[in-house]
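Need tokens for this chain, all 167 residues.
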Amino acid sequence: MNVPETRIRRALPSDEQALGELDRSTWSPLHAVLPAPEPPYAPFFDDRHPPEEHLVAEAPDGALLGYLRLAPPTPLACNAHVRQIQGLAVAESARGRGVARALLRAAMAETLRQGGNRITLRVLGHNAPARALYASEGFVVEGVLPGEFFLHGAYVDDILMGRSLTP
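Here are the structure tokens for all 167 residues:
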């Protein structure tokens, strides 16, 4: 399952095109609250989503297999100890090979490296595969916003999950 040859690194500005293509190719109603992207495409990186907030999984040949966006949830000093996963995508060809798990573990290590001790995320209630992965890595449900989104003709819960990174 695991892909030991996959390298996790911080994104570079030169990853812009590859990450934009990866993001568009992995769009799914299972996890997206925005409509499917259509041209002209917005830049992947912008003032609110800089390269330094992204970890990428890179194959030995340099192909990007996935990414995770890790950012402070707010600009407030009182929760500077928290990082939030604000996006996770894995290329279809790399699914089931441990890429998402490697990105999650790298995000936890990066949170600790940045001085944080807690990590959170939001996931749609109907995204059972993602919820199972997060739970297997120690994330627990900390809140539910029932019917928060109306997607494709159905109300969908918004689930907050989190975990402490201290023993």
